[in-house]
């Protein structure tokens, strides 16, 4: 990838190498692949090839997703749980049909209290249903945020809210970021989540930061959070 970014080799070569990792069992390797594909997806979001890179993501991640499944297996380690969350989240965001259907089913059970999602599966399920969700989905997530008694769960929800796709709902998430519902130190995570999720989100987040610059600057006074905000 570094060589491709430097213009030494074609990005096609990177994709060919990625295809060779379909039988890879290691979490660290998949994490790296996921990150690199994220970089390519961001670049391609401004082109006609965005949908095609999503198909590529589904092709590369489907075999490992099928092997891992949704539920822990006996004797699994911590890295297997991390890998499952990573893979399901990647497939869900890319619109993998079976992953999306199962995420919606499990989310419904979670909200109704029939079967509470394990901590490992919450982020991938939340991001999947939001990415392909509507105003009702967002309202449900905001309700879960309000009801959460642990800050860890609130932060988990805040980080994925930006996955929502419709422009008016993206604005609602950005407004929520500056509300009293979100701790000042966590506002950047919400805005960053919006900026990192889509081309529309990035543009909306950048406009939002400029429109609210005075409030944001006064809030963080040139500290590390303001520089993190500009980076995202």
What can you see in these coordinates?
By secondary structure, this protein is mainly alpha-helical. The protein has a domain at 1-93. Helix content is 72%, strand content 0%. The chain has 14 helices and no strands. The protein has helices at 2-5, 11-19, 27-44, 50-68, 78-94, 97-111, 119-131, 135-147, 151-160, 167-177, 187-195, 199-211, 213-220, 224-231. Helix 3 packs parallel to helix 5 (78-94), helix 5 (78-94) crosses helix 6 (97-111) and helix 10 packs across helix 12 (199-211). The longest helix is centred in the first third of the chain and has 19 residues, at 50-68. It is globular, with a radius of gyration of 18 Å. GO terms for molecular function: metalloaminopeptidase activity; peptide binding; zinc ion binding. InterPro entries: ERAP1-like_C_dom (IPR024571), Peptidase_M1_aminopeptidases (IPR050344).
Please give a quick description of this structure:
This protein has 232 residues and is mostly helical.
Query: What does the largest sheet look like?
Result: none
Number of strands: 0
Judging from the principal axes of the Cα atoms, what is the shape? globular
Helix content: over 70%
Poorly predicted parts = none
Mean pLDDT reading: 95
- Beta strand %: under 5%
Helix count, per DSSP? 14
Order of helices and strands: HHHHHHHHHHHHHH
Q: Please compute the radius of gyration using only Cα atoms.
A: 18 Å
Instruction: Please give the alpha-carbon distance between the first and last residues.
Output: 21 Å
Structural class: mainly alpha
Keywords: Aminopeptidase, Hydrolase, Protease
GO molecular function, one term: zinc ion binding
InterPro entries: ERAP1-like_C_dom, Peptidase_M1_aminopeptidases
Pfam family, one: ERAP1_C
